Each structure stands twice: as structure tokens, then as C-alpha cells.
Amino acid sequence: MKITVIVAILLCALCLLPAADAAFAGETIGVVRTASGAATVTRGEKTVPAAPGLKVMAGDTLGTGRDGSLGVILRDDSSLSIGPGSRLVLRRFLFSSPEGKFDLVASITRGTMAYLSGLIGKLAPEKARFETPTATIGIRGTRFAVKVGEPSAR
């Protein structure tokens, strides 16, 4: 009888694991605060117009057209401002202050972006990283701006 109960509990726990992973993967990491012109958020195969209040998740791609701009506030109070003609992928985000777990990795492939650090940049600056096609920016201060242009022909 005891073995049957233990097996039943283990099977239930195993059934819940995929749901826990899905909930973590779908966790909101921030919110769109401002959007103007052509501004979108792409999640998987689905692209939606960016609008204030739209939730942002790890893995999302933020994009703007020639007349677009986008402002996002992340859960650690970091601020991202993306200018016209930009593409930024929020690759990873982890903010668990009580456990001391932090991670922010974003990749900007074109356009302009300004960053104002939140708690991750203050508590664990080595855990915040921004990648461009030619360089990686590690956070050592509280703010920076970057412009990624077309690759030059050499």
C-alpha cells in the first residue's frame, strides 16, 4: 500500500514538471510603457503591435519601423528605449532577488537603444550583457546608448 501511494505521488509530481517549466518560460519579464509609429513585439511566430501595457517575455523580439519607437520597463526596473529601425531580442531574463539569481542578456542587431539599469545592473552588473553583431557590452555603469548600423564592406 505504501509503495502504491509513493508511486502515485511521484507520477503526479512528474506530470506537474512540464507545467512548471511552461509557466516559468511564459513568465512576464516586463511591460511596454510607450510605443509610437510602427512598433511590434514578436513572440514565436506571432507578431503583435506594441501598445502600452503589453506584457513582454523572455525570447520576445522588439522591433520598430522607420517611424517607430518603443519604451519597455523590465521587472527589475531597468528601462529600455528603442529608436527607429531597430531590432532587439530579449534572450534571457532572471530576477530573483531573495535567491540572489540575476541574468539579463539582450541582443540588438540593428538600430538604436538606450539602457538605464535597474536592480540587476546595480546588484550584479556582471550578469547584465548586451550583444551587438560586433561586440558585447557588459554593464559597469548605470546607463548607455548604442547604435548598430549596417555592416561596412571591407
Describe the structure.
The chain is an alpha+beta fold. Helix content is 19%, strand content 48%. The chain contains 2 helices and 12 strands. Strands 1, 2, 3, 4, 5, 6, 7, 8, 9, 10, 11 and 12 form a 12-stranded mixed beta sheet that branches. Strand 10 and strand 11 form a beta hairpin. The termini are far apart. About 13% of the residues have low confidence.
Question: What is the secondary structure topology, with strand pairs?
Answer:
Elements (H helix, E strand, L loop, with lengths): L1 H24 L2 E9 L2 E5 L2 E4 L5 E3 L3 E4 L4 E6 L4 E4 L4 E10 L4 E16 L2 H5 L4 E4 L4 E3 L4 E6 L6
Parallel strand pairs: 9-10
Antiparallel strand pairs: 1-4, 1-6, 2-3, 2-5, 5-8, 6-7, 7-9, 8-9, 9-12, 10-11
How would you describe the shape? globular
Oligomer: single chain
Run of helices and strands: HEEEEEEEEEHEEE
Please tally the β strands and state the result.
Answer: 12
Average pLDDT = 82
Instruction: Specify the biggest β-sheet.
Output: 12 strands, mixed
Count of alpha/pi helices:
2
Which runs of at least 5 residues are low in confidence (pLDDT < 50)?
Answer: 5-24
Question: First CA to last CA: what distance?
Answer: 74 Å
Strand content: over 45%
- Helix content estimate: 10-25%
The Rg value, from CA coordinates, equals 19 Å
Provide the structure class: alpha+beta
Task: Give the key terms.
about 150 residues; alpha+beta; 12-stranded mixed sheet; 12 strands; globular
